[in-house]
Amino acid sequence: MSADRITAVSALPRAARKQIATPKTRPKAVESLFFSRDESWLKFNWRVLEEAEDPSNPLMERVKFLAITASNLDEFFEIRVAGMLQRIEDGYNQPQPLDEGGLTPQQRLDRLSESMARFVKAQYACWNQRLLPAMQVEKIRVLRWGELNDAARDQALEFYANEVDPLLTPVTIDPSHPFPRVLNKALCLALLLRHKRKLNGAKNAPAALGVVTVPRSLPRLIPLPSEENCCDFVMLHELIESQVERMFRGYEVLSRAAFRVTRNSNLYMQEEESRSVLESVRTELHNRRKGDAVRLEIESTATEEIVERLRTNFELEPWQVFKTDGPVNLSRLMNLYSEVKRPALKYPPFSGREFRLSRKSKDIFEELRKTDVMLHHPFDSYSTVEEFIESGSVDPNVISMKQTLYRTSKDSPIFRSLIEAAQSKDVTVVVELMARFDEDSNIRWARDLEDAGVGVFHGIVGYKTHAKLALLVRRDPDGVVRRYAHLGTGNYNPVTARFYTDISMLTSQTELTLAVQKCFNYLTAETDSDTYDPLLVAPLNLSDRLVELIEREAEHAKAGKPAAIIAKMNGLIDRRTVEALYAASQAGVEIDLIVRGMCSLRPGVKRLSERIRVRSIVGRFLEHSRIFCFANGGEEQIYCGSADWMPRNLIERCEVLFPVTQPDLKDRLRNEILKAYLDDNVKARLLQPDGEYIRAPRTGAPFSAQDYLMQVAENMDERTAAAREKSA
Fold first, then answer.
1. Are residues 217 and 191 part of one domain?
2. Annotated catalytic residue 466
3. Candidates 376, 466, 556, 624; catalytic one
4. Is 603 exposed, middle or buried (0-12, 13-18, 19+ CB in 10 A)?
């Protein structure tokens, strides 16, 4: 570690601390060099909420953004809050490292509970004060049961009788009927009931508690008959509430309220004791459905008696109860987005440009023998990647296929191609069973692949396989056996590829494809290799090599050579990497970071990070690509890959970064893609030294990177084809 490297640091320099201590920040919060990852994550969700509040976005897209904030918050409770509660319960309540603010888990939780309460209040203010009135103007209404006219009520009741009632199971809690097991995030109704007959002669028998689970298989919003150009809906739980007297005959319904419980969804596996990783994950998935409750959401109109009975039953503290001034599950507003068929209220349709072979190439393999192909999704269609895998499955000259699968989609063309290929060639797939919240589907895919004759592996025990790699081995017409590879930043999921930004590279470079083969050998057999160059591979060498690249820029700066870093990623919380960036800034390196979500680095602090700028872009597409550009004394190097600068990626997962060396592709990454994100003054927010984000200043015309890249895709096909012809 160099002398300039920051090692053990407990507080900012006094001058720096004075500079960033604003009235909006707490004194203790600004003494650390690092922002808390959880508070940083919550700030990301605030930026998503800002998109829901922004009237310049189409109305139904704003509804969608609000739904996304709710889904994000669900996961935050299931994983992060649950993890903190688990540590506290297990007795681990010592002060945490500096990158967590030096607080104990309980102190962190106390601060987060306040932040989460404010956020939930802002969510419902957005729904009630902004979105509902705007929808009303557009004649889109979510009606209460009492607001329905006769025709709407008759249709809703017909739907109830035919589709809903057969699925309901009303339960009254008493000694012979214990509280039902409420599944994670299942919407339920709680009712206070009094039996109409005197029980055992008691005149004032205590009220009983009734519970009804709202069927998950049914839509949360029921369309209603309405006037022309109108869209009316009623919430499913409102429809069920209207019929509770029929369900609980013999009882008087004193009060009612919709509620939802969020449970701990972390997997705690004992892999070494399992017959297989697949069996271990399957067992833990069953257990996770019964995880401890970590949050209760309930309608704000609920009586205190209902709230307290539920809180006590689920063993929650008062801060874990969130009273909602509107629909209990805002994430289900995504259904509203789907049901409203009003194109004018949504983003205009967009399809990425299709890849074209150069005139001299008969197929993709001949093209790749001449030139690498880079795709920027969704601006470039993902169908090219699907067709590459499909070509391997049907081409008799392809001998073998290997692929990693982290997340994919139902009915994926890639999945079908792998099964088809197994009928005639060797196919190996590394399936990551522990891709969070996709474990169940990945287990099914793994079994289906095995049944089709695919060799299925689950990577290295203890490490998630997050690398995005595919390798085809082909005997070409000239008799030479060659490797062809796809390397990417995103999952092999054609659904998310339409709204996640990602980089794909297709190549037949001998050195690069050989390194991909070595990675597969590592994943399937944990074999060692003298080198994986030119790839950077976690957990083997990626963390060390990344720090070396940053330190090299610092040395170039000291020597007066070109020194700069531009890095785009989803999250930056690895302490060692942040310290290296601080040292590089002090050495004179200009650093621009484009970090969508969590960022623990504190930028813009004098004598520490004054040459570091951090921006986050939240827009129509989820920014998911990872691109890392190093000036390297004038010999620029650019890497792309699957890894963020987070401990879980650099140390706890199998990840790959790959170099982009072809001049035209480097130019596109640097001067088209990265430049666009750095120029964005519409969707970009800049991280301040005190941890707040502000909108990028607009000194000229408004410029949105994603809008620009869509325009490039729509209008520049001919230029791209010509450039590829030239490089070929």
1. yes
2. yes
3. 466
4. buried
